[in-house]
Each structure stands twice: as C-alpha cells, then as structure tokens.
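Quiz preparation item.
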C-alpha cells in the first residue's frame, strides 16, 4: 500500500511511518501519541519529524492528556504548536518552513 515504517525514535519513543501524500489529506505530518505519520515527500526534511516528535514528547509528559487537551483548549494548542515550530525552525538542518510561514500558521490556529 506504500506505507513504510522506516524509523524508530528512541527518545521520545515513537514509530515513524512515511505515507504517500494523497493519504495525508493536506497534512505534512500527524501524530497520535507515539505513532507519527509523515508525508513521504518530506522524508528528507528533518524539520517535520522534529515537529511531530515534539508532539510525542508533549503526549508523554502529560501522561496522554495531551491527546484530548490539544483538541479542546486553544491556548494549550497554540503553546504546543509554538514549541513544535520552535524546535522545527531551530533544531532541524532542513526546517521545511520559513519563520514567516510559521508565524502565519500560528496566527491561523483556531
Ligand atoms: Zn504541530
């Protein structure tokens, strides 16, 4: 089907699955706790993996509450995305986004 598990992250523990773009519904990456899906086109853009691993860390450090709170609490969602984009921009060799694009995305969070 084209799904490919190519990476296991140890810290935080996560299974990373690269997915064909047509199955990602417009998302670059998506995280369900320790399971991360990344658009296959961004396999070599480490910024997206770093972004989603940040969400996995948020999941672990809240003992899973992140998975619920993220969807019901806008302030929490903004703080989570700010941390994830911060890591994406500053820790990745290839962030995949510019600072300006990040600012636009953070401003569009509802
Ligand atoms: Zn995010």
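Solution:
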């Amino acid at each position: 089907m084209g799904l490919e598990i190519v990476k296991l992250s140890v810290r935080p523990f996560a299974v990373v699955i690269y997915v064909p773009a047509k199955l990602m519904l417009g998302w670059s990456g998506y995280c369900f706790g320790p399971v991360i899906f990344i658009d296959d086109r961004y396999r070599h853009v480490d910024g997206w993996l770093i972004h989603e691993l940040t969400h996995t860390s948020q999941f672990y450090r809240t003992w899973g509450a992140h998975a619920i709170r993220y969807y019901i609490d806008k302030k929490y969602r903004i703080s989570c995305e700010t941390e994830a984009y911060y890591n994406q921009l500053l820790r990745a060799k290839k962030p995949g986004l510019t600072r300006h694009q990040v600012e636009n995305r953070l401003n569009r969070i509802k």
